[in-house]
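Renewal narrative, Specific Aim 1. Our central claim is that a sequence can be written position by position from structural information alone. The example that follows is taken directly from our test logs and has not been curated for this report. It begins with the structure tokens describing the chain, in the order in which they were read.
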């Protein structure tokens, strides 16, 4: 290992995951690749490039700044800002030619003046909250009023789409079905009002896999694009390939005798003779303290338990009497080593969270190295 820790990102896997989503939905359904939060920790720009090669025709982010980053990187495809945009962020979003998620007629009025000076009409997607309870209006009447406000603001504004978002597509399909039934009448009324083609979209990764009636005109693939399982189980069940491997190396090996300890607080005290390896990765890199004594590390194709407290820059693993592990040897926290593999979902289940958070939590001090099925870029 030339570096203390590295996140290896296989862009070929992302490209194939995008293609698999399109195969599942049918090629008549557009694919919007969600690359917010720096591409779920994978790197927004390289991920977006791979997703477009895999068939994505639109990108989605959470903030105006993220939209600006993509536009500056040269992307010409539509970029949808899924999150709320403040009045202060609005000029940047408009200047980037981003499409915005809206649900409030008053916001449309504030947009109108700014959009009048934009080189092209600002596209908007009107969001109905059918049960998630976050952004969007619960009122169909208010959503329709927002559509009317957009249409009155032409040519500065352009109605591009209508949307909703599922709360339980990863778990409770009955409630997701209720959301879908709340959405359909609004879709019918919106289509009747629209003066041009309208893109209807609702499906996140879980709904792409489990709720085909929700695919409409476009789907928004997030975690599935990265080869994660939205149900937090096993991506392989859905034919998805995890794109990221998190690796470090064995920086030190020392014997440990019964009664000796490792790490802050002496959380681990040896009961038998063995060996301890120190790996230069810690919570400063995204390996959270909740994984203390609660995680495996793959070395030489075998699992070794993490022992003692996770510190900012180091973790320690028990080798036992294993003679094959050597200084400098590669160690894997996420990914495959020989016939063994450890997924982000497995780590997430150990600490009561989801794979999304594990991936997004890998810090910026861990460099991302990009490759295409092993070929460095």
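The sequence written for that structure reads:
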């Amino acid at each position: 290992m030339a570096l203390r820790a590295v996140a290896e990102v296989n862009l070929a896997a992302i490209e194939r995951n995008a293609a698999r989503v399109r195969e599942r939905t049918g090629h008549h359904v557009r694919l919007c690749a969600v690359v917010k939060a720096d591409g779920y920790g994978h790197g927004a720009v390289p991920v977006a490039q791979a997703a477009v090669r895999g068939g994505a025709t639109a990108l989605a982010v959470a903030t105006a700044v993220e939209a600006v980053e993509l536009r500056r990187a040269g992307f010409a495809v539509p970029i949808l800002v899924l999150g709320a945009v403040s009045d202060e962020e609005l000029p940047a979003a408009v200047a980037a030619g981003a499409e915005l998620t809206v649900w409030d007629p008053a916001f449309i009025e504030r947009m109108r003046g700014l959009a009048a000076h934009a080189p092209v009409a600002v596209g908007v997607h009107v969001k109905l909250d059918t049960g998630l309870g976050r952004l969007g209006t619960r009122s169909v009447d208010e959503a329709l009023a927002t559509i009317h406000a957009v249409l009155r603001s032409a040519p500065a504004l352009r109605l591009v789409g209508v949307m909703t978002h599922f709360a339980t597509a990863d778990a409770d399909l009955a409630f997701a079905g209720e959301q879908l039934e709340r959405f359909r009448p609004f879709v019918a009324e919106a289509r009747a009002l629209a003066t041009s083609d309208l893109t209807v979209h609702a499906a996140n990764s879980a709904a792409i896999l489990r709720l085909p009636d929700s695919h409409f005109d476009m789907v928004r693939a997030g975690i599935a694009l990265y080869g994660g399982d939205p149900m937090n189980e096993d991506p392989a069940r859905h034919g998805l390939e995890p794109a990221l491997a998190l690796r470090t190396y064995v920086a030190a090996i020392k014997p440990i005798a019964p009664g000796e300890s490792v790490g802050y607080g002496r959380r681990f005290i040896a009961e038998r003779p063995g060996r301890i390896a120190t790996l230069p990765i810690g919570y400063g890199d995204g390996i959270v303290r909740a994984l203390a004594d609660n995680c495996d590390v793959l070395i030489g194709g075998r699992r070794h338990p993490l022992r003692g407290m996770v510190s900012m820059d180091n973790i320690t693993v028990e080798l036992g009497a294993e003679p094959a592990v050597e200084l400098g040897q590669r160690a894997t926290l996420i990914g495959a080593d020989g016939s063994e593999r450890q997924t982000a979902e497995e780590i997430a289940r150990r600490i009561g969270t989801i794979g999304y958070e594990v991936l997004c939590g890998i810090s910026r001090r861990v460099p991302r190295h990009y490759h295409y099925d092993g070929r460095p870029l």
